[in-house]
Amino acid sequence: MTADSHGRAIRHVRISLTDRCQLRCRYCLPEEGVRLLDHADILRYEEIVAFLEVAVSLGISSARLTGGEPLLRRGAVSLVRDLARIPGLDDLSLTTNGLLLPDLAGPLRDAGLRRVNVGLSSLDPEAYREITRGGDLSVALRGLESAVETGFRPVKANVVLLRGVNEDPAPFLDLTRRLPVEVRFIEHMPVGPVPSERYRVPISEHRTRLDALGPFEPAERSRGVGPAEEAFRVPGAPGSFAVIPAASREICGRCNRLRLTSDGHIRPCLFSTREIDLKPALRPRPDARRLAELLREAIAVKPEGMPDPAAARGRGMSQIGG
Ligand code: SAM
């Protein structure tokens, strides 16, 4: 197990497959003017596999594929198959907007994926269309349902709390009454090129709103190696919910993750702009020894607490891998 300089065992990596997305969520991306990476700069699949093999040899046991929209990348299913076979990788999951899941849930599960998180910023079709700049909620919901029907467990719905968009938790609690889905109310994070603080809902405010809809009972915590959160359920509901204080310093002490951007940079902390370029160890062909050296360096420089979030303005979630 490789620990960072603050004694935290680093077990989890988020791998961004692409910086492209078919949505333009207002809190994540500007409508226009996003400079996309050149195709040649995006890691090839054999480079991602080589990276993860080395990461696992250093103690990483869990990986999540993300983006941009990871399912937009051609051949994502065959990449999942190759990654799922890596000995020592105990957990492979995916974060998606769900729009391509109606077609891909079955093939992804056959390829070895076991867990998915689907972004659902609203359960109101109009509000969803507005915040995603054109997304069709019915397709995202079909994607979520396909994941449940295909047997993914857990299936989580990521709800980034947004002022004026989804402050009312009631519709999401209804979703947990209907489906065995874990709703995760996630605090908005001050990252990226869009000045999106106006959307921010303090997590305490949301907890108060939830309390008014109780009582709830404790739910078993699902598999996941990220910052642990307590889960609850509406009595008798098949689904559950949790609140994630994602932008609070209180979770830094338990942070056990690294991020790999789609152009091959390791980002040891979401809130720090410091990145380590792995390309010299991946091209012209992967060099496992050099990769391990660079990964150890990235783990060593992981900051103890949250750097000034203002410094995280720069690459956005879709570019880093949310
Ligand atoms: N396209 C996929 C999706 O929609 O889930 C994966 C990439 S997206 C960047 C990953 C997650 O990051 C989404 O759930 C999105 O809501 C979240 N996200 C984007 N910007 C965020 C922000 N500023 N704070 C918190 N979460 C954010």
**Can you tell me the CATH class?**
Alpha Beta
Mean pLDDT across every amino acid position: 92
CATH topology: TIM Barrel
**Topology as H/E string?**
EHEHEHEHHEHEHEEEEEEHHH
How would you write the strand order of the largest sheet? 7-8-9-6-5-4-3-2-1-10-11-12
Q: First CA to last CA: what distance?
A: 24 Å
Total count of helical runs of at least 4 residues: 10
The total number of structural domains is 1
Give Rg in angstroms.
19 Å
Give the % helix.
Answer: 25-40%
Listed once per kind, the bound small molecules are: S-adenosylmethionine
Q: What share of the residues does DSSP label as strand, in percent?
A: 15-25%
| SSE class | alpha/beta
Sketch the major β-sheet: 12 strands, mixed
Q: Which stretches are low in confidence, meaning pLDDT under 50 for 5 or more residues running?
A: none
Plain-language structure description:
The structure is a single chain. By secondary structure, this protein is of the alpha/beta class. The protein has one domain: TIM Barrel. It has helices at 45-57, 76-84, 101-110, 125-132, 137-150, 170-178, 203-211, 279-282, 288-300, 317-320, and strands spanning 12-16, 62-66, 91-96, 115-119, 155-160, 181-186, 217-219, 231-233, 240-244, 257-260, 265-267, 276-277. Strand 2, helix 2 and strand 3 (91-96) form a beta-alpha-beta unit. The longest helix has 14 residues, at 137-150. The relative contact order is 0.17. The structure holds S-adenosylmethionine (SAM). S-adenosylmethionine (SAM) binds at residues 21, 27-28, 66-67, 69, 95-97, 119, 158, 160, 186, 188-189, 191-192, 196, 246, 317-318, 322.
